[in-house]
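Archive entry: two folds, one per protein. Generate the first.
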Amino acid sequence: MSVPLFDPQAQLFSLAAASGQMFAPDSPFRLFAEKIYPRLVAVRGELASCYCADNGRPAVEPVLVRGVSLLQFLENVPDRQALELLGYHAGWAFALNRALGQPGFDPTVLVRFRERLIEHKQAHRAFVAILEGLQEAGLVARQSKQRLDSMFVMGRLARMSTLECVRETLRLALLELETSASAFGKPAGWSVLRERYVESRFDYRSEEATLRAKLQQAGEDLLSLWQWGKALSDPTIARGPKTQLDGAYVSVERIAQMQAEGRQLIGPAQSAPKKDGRYSTEDFVISIAERRAKCPAGQENTQCSRLEEEKTGKVSYRFEWSTHCHKCPLREKCLGKDQKHRTLVVGAYHEVLQARRREQKTEAFAEEKKKRNAIEGTQSELVRGPGARRARYRGLAKVRLQNYFIGAACNVKRWIRRLQWEMNQARRTAVGVAILQESG
């Protein structure tokens, strides 16, 4: 298909003629037409490489298709609904300089347009065009550093399907129990389960071993909930032992990985659990490399064993104190009722975990965490608005293109809101000046 003829000027029978009556100065569609549409026109020449120069029938105007794609992500609608809005929504027609009664095009044009962008490496251009507009407007500093969240928008789709299904099942079950369990009580470890599956989101770009471990963990939690529910319905079934859960917001494996890459991951790690006020792992000084540990009484371990799970390959270390515990003055604060000597099992990254636990208690960490909190609003906005957490298309290239459009749509929305705020401030200032002049 060839590049069609294009006239960037407003057409005689477009909605621009009636814009003053239909759209207020601070209307999002007017601001889109005045600020965003010219940016799309300015980079039209870059799309020429996606089409034949003068061979074949003219294609649908690429500026229009790109504008529809951008509005599509702003409204978070599928292809077919986007074309319906283009046909009957006056705001869309005005924003994209459409003539009244102008025929639309088939939704498959959007599909082929995305394929062209990927094939000719133009996936990022809409995002960059909006970003450059924000920079020229002085709203975004050039070459500024941005802090990113620990969660990635794009997941490993081939590996996450089963895990996502199980975790989503748990999330919905816990949400249901939150309202229906008042009559019979909630299961053991409720707060940790809720934090793990409702309040937090798992990074599906983790390593294969981590994904397998998380799937096994989710399966065990699901089985535990099923057994709990079955025991409620059948009182003759004995309740099993309570499962101890680890609900850290950021995993120690991810902290260690970021440190190895020279990057910093800001986020709290869950404190070590304390049983009946007894000493926890945080009260022990442990060196994995030296296989040595010192208890609160100052005694070193007598034995250290390296443990490795056959299925997941997860490595942990078991420290033991034997004769030291017999006459220790801190025995009651350290050992349980039936324990003869203290044992301690820690992960391979325990020292990293301990360092984060100490660090997160400082004022400096609290100040640094405020920067991390700032991205949470953006993360929530991307998920609740354009639907960043769910892939529309199959394949990483198409998902990457989706993320570029989502980022561009988010920037467009913020740009328009900024312009609306500036207009509102100008009106308030003008009203204030008028009042002062009348009173003076």
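Generate the second and append.
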Amino acid sequence: MKILDIPQSGKRGLNVSQNSPFGQISRAAGRVANPRTPLQLAVRDTMGRVAAGWRALTETQRVAWMVAAKSAMSNTRLNQSGSLSGFLLFTKINCTLAQFGQEQVQAPPDQPQFPALAPQNLSVSNTAGVIALKLTCPTSPGENTIIRGAEPRSQGRETCSDYRLLGTCPAAVQGSADITSLYTARFGVPPVAKKVYIQVNQVVDGWESLPRTFWGIVPAAP
């Protein structure tokens, strides 16, 4: 239900407040599903191992993370953000490294200068019923460009916030990187007339750049 109230986000009693594309809403709090999928369990295992790694640091190492965290800001919520704690920065960096099969670090890496993002657009085609998703890449995406995607949505949807990691961007061939297999491996072939959302960013030493979002509507076969 849409409400008129001061900006708020989160659970309060039996209700949950959140922002939507149409304004602030309030809804009854429900039970969170816990399907315990292999991917979900893998993420929980990673977070548990990273937390144990924080406890295993020396106090000098923890202080170094605390100092570095003062310049690392949280994601904006209700137009507000703040610096992270040392533990949150340690968790953020090392969970990201683990997600891509890289070794955990005990010292905070310097914030990198990210190069220009190679993908510039999403192209969705349908050739005799064969759906293809390609990112237009005038330059090489390199090895640090990350692709996330969302389940096919109604083409009437104007926003999307629920993305899942698909993998690293493949090499571009003649100016295009084919991400069809990355997407279909996670969500299956998107149906005709559905909207496909893709989010792209870069990861360097566990730090992530701000994402860029692309979308396209699956056309009917000519």
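Annotation attached to the second fold: The mean pLDDT is 91. Residues 38-99 form one domain.
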